[in-house]
Structures are given as C-alpha cells and as structure tokens.
Amino acid sequence: MKPKTKYILSILVISGFALLYYNHNNELTETSFDSTELKYAKRFFGIGILCLVLYFFNKKLKNLLTKIMFGVFGISLALNLYIFPRIYESVRINKIYYEYSEIETCEEMEKRFATDLKNGEIKYFQFGIGYNVGLEKTLKEQYNIETFGMGCTIQSEKECYNKLVNEYLKKDFNKSISDIEKESDLYKLIENN
Fold first, then answer.
1. Which terminal residue of the chain, N or C, has fewer Cβ atoms less than 10 Å from its own Cβ?
2. What is the pLDDT of residues 136-191, one digit of tens each?
3. Distance between CA 137 and CA 127 in Å, rounded?
4. DSSP class of 121
5. Same domain for 69 and 132?
C-alpha cells in the first residue's frame, strides 16, 4: 500500500471511529433514539475492520481489499457525519436543561438571568401540552432568545426566570411574551395561507 493511501485510510479509520464512538455513547443516553444510520455505520465499520485483518493475511486480494476498505470506511464516516449534528444538538440541549434544573430558587435564577443577559444567552422555558414552534422561531430570530419545551409540569424556579425574560422584553422592546405569542400565531396563520 502506498504511503498516501495509508495516510488517507488512517484518517478515514480514526475519524470514523471517533465519530462512531461519540455517536454511540451519546445517541441512546442523551437523545433516546436508536437511529438506523448508526446501526449501518457500525456494520460498515465492522466490515472495514474485517477487510483490514484480511489485508494482512491475503497478498492476492490486497488491491481489492484496499478499495473495499475505502468504500466501507467512507460510508461509515459519511453516516456518522450525517447523524452527528442531530446528536450534538441534543447533547447540548440536555446539558443546558440539566444546568438549569440544578438551580432550585428564584434568587439563584435571578443571578443566572443576569449572567445570561450579560452574555446574550437568554432562555425561555415553555410549559404546556403543546409546544409553540412559532413562538420559538420568533424569539430566536427577533430577540435572540433560545426556547426550551418543558412539558406540562410547571417548575416555579423556571417560571421566575420566564418572568424576568418577560420584564426584559417589556423594558427593551415594549412587548410581552403573550404579545409575541399572539404575533407568532398570526405569523403562522399568514404563513399557512
């Protein structure tokens, strides 16, 4: 095998393995979904390893095995790259959710809000049966506020944070969350027609 071929194959194997390891460890623990893409990525990577072992024992098939390794390691890497952003985003959201879940009082939430405001990283926690996608989009695009769906159980400390967000919006933009919610619903109706 030529040095350039070895180098490229090594990069494919190492980067593919690193992504496979990350995706495997975080997919089920952080996102609770088991994607078909990851299953196929594991299978292709396994075929690549099998071909790599055979490469050292069978001199006649070295060229064919090299081509197969490029193909299967490449497919495995492509599949891992495809699912990586989705898993990474879920991991990021879960870390933020965990971080805010550790805050237990309104006073601590006020301190956290002040820090978030200073850093330009304001959050809004939506409670209720349905998640308002229009509100999420409007808050993100127009006010740079990231929204998190919290489900039906209202958490008082996060409600304290939401009140501070509402006060901030009233003070700086002369709008409340309910005003923005109505606008986003209106926006959704206009977009659908």
1. C
2. 888 888 889 898 888 777 778 888 999 999 999 999 989 888 888 877 765 555 55
3. 16
4. -
5. no
Q: Which residues form the domain of 83?
A: 3-95
Residue 19 Cα distances to 24, 126, 187, angstroms: 8, 32, 39
Distances 61 to 32, 49, 50 between C-alpha atoms, Å: 41, 15, 13
Number of domains in the chain: 2
Where a domain ends, among 70, 95, 120? 95
Q: How many CB atoms lie within 10 A of CB 8?
A: 14
- Residue 126 pLDDT more than 60? yes
Angstrom distance (rounded) from CA 101 to CA 80:
30
The residue that leads in pLDDT, 76 or 190, is 76
113/158 same-domain check: yes
